[in-house]
Amino acid sequence: MSTKKNWPLWEVFIRSKAGLAHRHAGSLHAADAEMALEMARDVYTRRNEGVSIWVVESNHITASDPEDKEALFEPSGDKIYRHPTFYDLPDEVKHM
Amino acid sequence: MAEKDLEKIFQQKVDDEIKIEPKDWMPEDYRKTLIRQISQHAHSEVVGMLPEANWITRAPSLQRKLILLAKIQDEAGHGLYLYSATETLGVERDDTIEDLHSGKAKYSSIFNYPTLTWADIGAIGWLVDGAAIMNQVPLCRCSYGPYSRAMIRVCKEESFHQRQGYSIMLAMANGTPEQKRMAQDAINRWWWPALMMFGPNDADSAHSAQSMKWKIKRFSNDELRQRFVDMTVPQCHLLGCEVPDADLKFNEDTGHWEFGEINWDEFWNVVKGNGRCNRERIRDRRNAYKEGEWVREAAMAYAEKKRKRKEATQAA
Prior knowledge:
heterodimer; A: alpha+beta; 2 helices; about 20% strand; elongated
């Protein structure tokens, strides 16, 4: 591993058009947030991919552990009553 | 969980076409294979800018120059997507770049050939980017998520590269006799190296079987090469040019173009560092990195200064 102080890593999120959420586009290295924004523009929006960019330093992101996947997400699997299709209604009820 | 069980779960996921993501458990060799392949792919994008850069100041019109600049900027972008994908596997960018500079890591041998005339820029876009697309499209379905996502972006952008190349070839092939001669000469020099881009014949390909099992690779070298030849030969004829292969012939029964033996001695010679431009390319990359060092340091110092100033204002 190199000993020099390198530009930190940033994650880039792009809103492709008004009305849509920002979506992860990729990452890049930059000295600070301002530079990260400028570079994100060059690296990830060369073909009108976006109208807005967010950058956040990668080490500020807290991620769930893949090992916890079952504990976190399986409990919702058997709660099918949370979906509208669980309920049988008479045909007379046309739209609900 | 025992390593053997983890490996079984991993392979099951791969078989079920579930993508592997950076923090998921993966076999050490899978990680190593990906680091090697993705970083070498990144190096190829970056070194690939050099032969084309040779023609930026010599482009025949302002429009062609703008197009070439845009294409080269794309290659830099592709290199960056791929370096980022490599970093998700737990290696530092600087270390991968150091491996390129020391000669430990390879890049595609095609970039060790010189660009002698403007027609070479056409031939590179059409043949070299064409072969690259053929290799890269299946990589969009690679089992490793970040590599697959990077390849999807790259492939979307790359098709412009091939079309601009063919457009240069069309202009040259329909130009003056001298321009037509240059077009044919470029095809003569780039055809065989382009076929070599698919790597050794299947029987001699060291990493293929395992990579197929891990779904890093989807098709064999020879399969992809054949597809490329089938697609490209008619395009060459459409230009009114000849494919420089005396053994080339269309097989009516199989529907494939059969082609001659590739000069593998040349291929290995260039891989080993003895191509026309190997030394020049690495020298240029090393210099660019070294000469950019003060910029990287200054940017870091400036960012630090700005941060301190901001903190001071906030404290006051």
